[in-house]
Amino acid sequence: NTVMERRAVERISRRVFVGFLQANYAFQQNTKIGEIVTDITRETDRAMQSIFGLFRAFGSALQILLYVGGLFLLSTPMTLLSVAVFCVIGFLTRSLLVEVKHTGSGITEANIKLGSFLVERMQLLRLIRLSGAERAEAARFGELSRRQRDVTTRQQLVAMRATLLPEPIAIGSGYMLLFLGAGVFGLSLEKLALFVLVLIRMMPLVRGAIADYNKIIGRWASVDRIDNRLSQVLDAREKTGGSRKFRRLDRQLSYQA
């Protein structure tokens, strides 16, 4: 997956770069170079992480379904209770996942602003020094950098909370399931131990699936941006030839002095 992901990043980055080179002059003049640079060097990577995270999440979901199928073979009522617990976990983490998605858009915006600022100021270094604006530009860079740091840290903290939240709920539910399995549903000790063992084995998969989903939605704003950028450079591609179409040659070519 890592090799395929890096190849996809390289191909998409090349398409954006070549598309910008082949775009018409008006589009090139109206597009900030810093935004193109950030799209190629940073946003493409984040977009591919999100897309390939879908495949990892699908693999985790398939494994979880296989484990749930095995639990149904052991005890249907206990499995239904376990599924209900997982649904409660999903409901409780919903607001956190929304926050992860929101901060993902903020990260993309912060990356674009910082990248554009750096490229534009690097092209104007002599003018900045002659005008004595070093302090003002340094202050602006610090502001943009702090904004990027804050929104990235915020997303990481919220994603960590969403990943760790299932642990205490699962532990508390495990005691309840042990009591119900032995006292209400009358499961034998062997079946009860096997059921708990499968649940314990499922928890890392559930935690991994939540982490993958955090990465997907947290970087999906980059997917939308790269998709829009590819559409823009494709629509702005310079047309070859003039407005009139050559049909056929009616007579021979002649040269006049």
Report on the architecture of this protein:
It is a single chain. With 257 residues, the chain is mainly α. It contains 9 helices and no strands. The protein starts with a helix and ends in a 22-residue tail after the last helix. The mean pLDDT is 85.
In short:
By secondary structure, the chain is mostly helical.
Please write out the topology.
Blueprint: H1 2-21, H2 25-30, H3 33-74, H4 76-122, H5 125-131, H6 134-164, H7 166-183, H8 189-218, H9 220-235
Helix pairs in contact: 1-3, 1-9, 3-4, 3-8, 3-9, 4-6, 4-7, 4-8, 4-9, 6-8, 7-8
Number of strands: 0
Residue stretches low in confidence (pLDDT < 50, at least 5 long) are none
Our estimate of the beta-strand percent is under 5%
- Portion in helices: over 70%
Span from first to last CA? 66 Å
The Rg value, from CA coordinates, equals 28 Å
* Number of H- or I-type helical stretches: 9
Question: Which labels suit this protein?
Answer:
mainly alpha, 9 helices, 257 residues
